[in-house]
Amino acid sequence: MSSDKGMSSSLDQQKPKAPIDVLPDDILLEIFSLGARSTSNTSFSFRVSTICQSWRSLAINDPRLWTALSVIITADVAPPPIPTGQSFDRSLAFPREVLISERSGDQDIDFSLEYESSGDDETEGFMEPHYLVLSQCLADIAHRIRSFRATTFDWPEMYHLCAWLKGIEMPRLEVCHLVAMCSEIRVYMPTYEDVLGPVHLLEYAQDDETLPVTSQDLLQRGTLQYPALKYVPCAGIPMDWGLFCTLNLRALCIQDQPAMERPGTELLRGILSNSKDTLEVLELAYAVGLYDEEPGDSPISESRLTLPHVKQLKLTYYHPREAQHVLGAFDFPALCSVTMKSHDEDKDSSIVLAELLQYVDVEQLLDVVLTGISLPQEDFPEQEVNGAEEESLPLVLRFLRWLTHGNLHKLVLEYCCGDFLKFMNYRHESGGREVNLARLYALIVKVGTEDASVGVMSFVRDRLALGTVDGVYVGPVLERMIIIVKPNVQEEADSLGDLKLAKDGVFLFCNVTLMN
């Protein structure tokens, strides 16, 4: 019997260890951390920690594995009830969140809250008390939050989520991403029409009696409260933009604000003045206020604020004057990507294109996206002109010629007037044979009507004809071309065979019109 026991013990000793058991703890931690970051399953760390004793011990004891604080709200799962007693233990409602907060030590926390749509009638899983309790939990760790990403059904929920964060310093906060899923309806409203007031986050400390009135006042407070803040995307959330300013902002994206809640150009100038040496991305979608502007007003070019490092500019506007005021108020010497989107494709956007030509170095643009840009229809000039006489050329032709002089990489035209395509087939200089944008790398065209689809096919056939010599196409060839049209031109498109205008070209036929 003893001999059997000895043999068993000897076999156990000789049995090779599993590879995972011989890995150093540091490598296990890296594997664990990588897996936790690369999955959307928020229970990953809990599930994987049960695989083996070594991992379980690491998961419990190492704060580096407890830094992702994710909350998913769904109407399918009822949240726990919130007692009304003053001594309520928050861990009863949010046990996982409290546990992560405790075990993360002094590590940076990445917080995210997602609203999972049911697809039917939208019902909110969390009620006001749930958001307030969660807000208290976040207030306890506010000094360690590195990223704050929250998506709620509407903005009042965001108000309650941020209620306990008002006035609290968040020295490690780098990203603040706030989104209300119902944000698009706000574009049509004058105000938020609610007594709650703005969401009290990103507001710099101020005295109760006097508010900061200059950007320097805001800067002094901002360096103390949010010194690391770099990225601020905000959609459909009421903010007191007059109390927002930061020193090292890299990207500012304001979207879907009611007409009377949008910051005007002077306020935008104050917000951005202290980040003018760091800002790289500026996106304003229904976010430029015109309520304090006279209809004919235009910012004076001498007072323009230079943003030397902004490379990407995206403007989505309800009225063309919104884009006009931004282009007139700021100088973008390093700009290489521009997106202009009009809310109403039937509204004349000539002033926007004119302002681009006046204030932007169009020749250095690499990517241009135009959506819903409508212009008065113009004909080809009766005679070829160059030099100073080019000012008399149609606006679209002048715009395309300047793009042709540069190194434009990609052009996207969505629901735009047909003149853009028509004038692409016009010679880009007097006496030359090369059409406009002959060196373009990629072209994407999307139209929403049958008439516009016919116009696209005319562009394709004309460009093929202009580049064909003795029956052989020798004209400019794009690397990529995507054309999205209505099915009424499918037969004509199929008759072209291989699309010689591009190495990788495709027609897509769609019956649904979608504005991105």
From TrEMBL:
Coiled coil: none annotated. Pfam families: F-box-like. Residues 20-69 form the F-box domain. This is F-box domain-containing protein. It comes from Armillaria luteobubalina.
